[in-house]
Amino acid sequence: MNVITTKKELRQKITEYKNKNVTIGFVPTMGFLHEGHLKLLDEARKANDIVVLSVFVNPLQFGPNEDFDSYPRNIKRDEELAKLAGVDLLFSPSVNEMYPNKPSYTVTVTSRVHVLCGRSREGHFDGVATILTKLFNLIEPNRAYFGMKDAQQVAVIDGLINEFEFPVQLEAVETIREEDGLAKSSRNVYLSEKERKQAPSIYKSLLAAKQLILQGERNKTKINHLITHIINEETDGNIDYVETLSYPDLEEVEIISGKCIIAVAVKFTGARLIDNITIEVQ
């Protein structure tokens, strides 16, 4: 596995790959790899000749109340996991390497960001779109892999690729779950024992909503009410949002039709958990 820290080295290696006419699968991360990331790498390994992983904690994604400095980092562990996962090239630049000067140009996202988590994280997806624009241009991947656990991010990236006509295929990978259905997340370790037992009710509520839709219900308010009722009855968490939107446009709907996302965020004492399902109806 090649470990590269500079853009110059990266361009040289990518040129070598392109000259060999190989396909490149790209998994961008902020490091501290977990099973969700490893699933993305596994999917990339299956479908591409070369797998490129980036580990970069992007300061542009952090708002004024979010501590960039305390974000967990363990590059040595990431390198070990990447090697075991069959990564061919690990790109782990410094902040100064990616942003040697204060950015003069950034990408501003104007749609798909004023709902769900984006409502309370102003500018976050601008940072995501800016760094991905740089990385897509540097790495020139054939396919890029992202987890559906953060379905809003997937929707924003879908829009970015289409808007700027990047020649990259977006691969959205289903959420990895614990045996009891809880979406895997590094935040789960911050749940108390009681909260950990309650947390699977989030996914339970989404499955109940899906079943209601399959039975013919199309009223968004009734769907959201069912989810709210189950979470309030079965957990001590505080609901941040329950939303049913079109997908990937993330626009308000009253009657469920076509492809939609049902998404929730619940705040427990030590962690805020998000989850979602997508469903397509005629």
From TrEMBL:
<dbReference type="GO" id="GO:0004592">
    <property type="term" value="F:pantoate-beta-alanine ligase activity"/>
</dbReference>
<dbReference type="GO" id="GO:0015940">
    <property type="term" value="P:pantothenate biosynthetic process"/>
</dbReference>
<feature type="binding site">
    <location>
        <begin position="147"/>
        <end position="150"/>
    </location>
    <ligand>
        <name>ATP</name>
    </ligand>
</feature>
<comment type="subunit">
    <text>Homodimer.</text>
</comment>
<keyword id="KW-0963">Cytoplasm</keyword>
<comment type="similarity">
    <text>Belongs to the pantothenate synthetase family.</text>
</comment>
<feature type="binding site">
    <location>
        <position position="176"/>
    </location>
    <ligand>
        <name>ATP</name>
    </ligand>
</feature>
<keyword id="KW-0067">ATP-binding</keyword>
<feature type="binding site">
    <location>
        <position position="61"/>
    </location>
    <ligand>
        <name>(R)-pantoate</name>
    </ligand>
</feature>
<dbReference type="InterPro" id="IPR004821">
    <property type="entry name" value="Cyt_trans-like"/>
</dbReference>
<keyword id="KW-0547">Nucleotide-binding</keyword>
<dbReference type="GO" id="GO:0005524">
    <property type="term" value="F:ATP binding"/>
</dbReference>
<comment type="pathway">
    <text>Cofactor biosynthesis; (R)-pantothenate biosynthesis; (R)-pantothenate from (R)-pantoate and beta-alanine: step 1/1.</text>
</comment>
<dbReference type="InterPro" id="IPR003721">
    <property type="entry name" value="Pantoate_ligase"/>
</dbReference>
<dbReference type="GO" id="GO:0005829">
    <property type="term" value="C:cytosol"/>
</dbReference>
<dbReference type="InterPro" id="IPR042176">
    <property type="entry name" value="Pantoate_ligase_C"/>
</dbReference>
<feature type="binding site">
    <location>
        <begin position="30"/>
        <end position="37"/>
    </location>
    <ligand>
        <name>ATP</name>
    </ligand>
</feature>
<keyword id="KW-0566">Pantothenate biosynthesis</keyword>
<dbReference type="InterPro" id="IPR014729">
    <property type="entry name" value="Rossmann-like_a/b/a_fold"/>
</dbReference>
<comment type="function">
    <text>Catalyzes the condensation of pantoate with beta-alanine in an ATP-dependent reaction via a pantoyl-adenylate intermediate.</text>
</comment>
<feature type="binding site">
    <location>
        <position position="61"/>
    </location>
    <ligand>
        <name>beta-alanine</name>
    </ligand>
</feature>
<protein>
    <recommendedName>
        <fullName>Pantothenate synthetase</fullName>
        <ecNumber>6.3.2.1</ecNumber>
    </recommendedName>
</protein>
<feature type="active site" description="Proton donor">
    <location>
        <position position="37"/>
    </location>
</feature>
<feature type="binding site">
    <location>
        <begin position="184"/>
        <end position="187"/>
    </location>
    <ligand>
        <name>ATP</name>
    </ligand>
</feature>
<dbReference type="Pfam" id="PF02569">
    <property type="entry name" value="Pantoate_ligase"/>
</dbReference>
<keyword id="KW-0436">Ligase</keyword>
<feature type="binding site">
    <location>
        <position position="153"/>
    </location>
    <ligand>
        <name>(R)-pantoate</name>
    </ligand>
</feature>
